[in-house]
Design goal:
The chain is mainly alpha-helical. It is built from 20 helices and no strands.
Amino acid sequence: MARARAIYTLSKIGEPAIPALINALDNEDTRQSAADILSRIGVPAIPALIRSANHADRGTSVSIINALIKIGKPAVSSLIGMLNHEDIWIRNVTVAALTEIGEPSVSELIEALHHQDNLVQINVAVTLGDIGKPALPALIEALDGSTITIRLKIIMALNRINSFKAKSSVMQQIPILIEALNDEMNIRIHTVEVLGLIGTAAKPAIPSLIGMLNDSDERLCASVVLALGRIGNPNQELVSVLIRILKNDKRTTVQNAITQALELFGKSAGSAVPALIEILNVSDKKNQSRIVLALDNIGTLEARKAAQEWRVRQTRDPR
C-alpha cells in the first residue's frame, strides 16, 4: 500500500519524478504503474528509459519497451539505436516495439537502412517487413538509386510482406541480384543468402548459383548450396552435382549444407540416398543426425530403412 501511495505521489510530480520512477521499475509490485506514468510523461522520459533498458532484467525491459511504444513516434530514434544491442533478446523486443508503433516509424527506419552498423540495417529490414503494407511505398521508393548493400536489405524487407505488389517488386530485382553474384565476396554471400530467402521465386538465379558451387571460399559455397535447397525445384543434374561434391568435398560446412539442401529437396533427391548412407557410416555423431533427418525427409524405402537401422544402432550403442 505504501509503495502504491508513493507511485501515486510521483505521478503528480511529473518530470522531476523520472529518476524515482526509473528506480521503481526494478520492483515487480510497482513496475507496471511506474512504466505507465513514464509513458505519460513522454519525451522527457525517453533518455532515462533507454539508459535503464541497457542493463535491465527481462521483466523490467518489457515494461520499458511498452512505455516507449506508448510514447510512440518520438521514441523511434532511440529504439533504432537499440537494434545493435549485444543481447539478442533486447534486439528482438525492440524490433517488436518498432513494429507495434508501425507506420509512424517508417520514415526513420528507411533512413536507418543507411546506418553504418550492418546489424542495425538487418534488424531495420526485418522491422519494415514486419510492419508490412504501410511500409511498402517507402520501401519501393527507396530502391531507386540505392547501393547494392542497401538494396539487399530492402529486398529482405519486401520479401517479408505478403502482398502482390511486394512480391512483384522482389521479382523485378532478381536480374540485379544475379548480376551482384559477380561482386566482391561479402556482397556475393549476402546476395546468395537473400536469393535463398526469396525461395521459389528466385528460380531464374539457379544456373548462376550452380556455377558457383565449386568456389574455393567455404562460406560462399555452403551459402550457395543452402540457397539452392531453399529455392527448390531441383533437377537430376543438380542433385548429381551435389552428390559429387558431397563425396569429394571434405569441408564440414559444405557437407552439412548439402545434407540440409537434400533434406529440403525431399523425394526429388532420391538418387542421393546411396551417397548419404555411405557418408552416414563414416561421419561423426552430430553429422550423422543431420544425414538421418535428410534420409527421413527423402522418404524412399531405401532411405527410411537406412534411417531406421541407424536408430536401432544408437539404442544398442548410444556413444
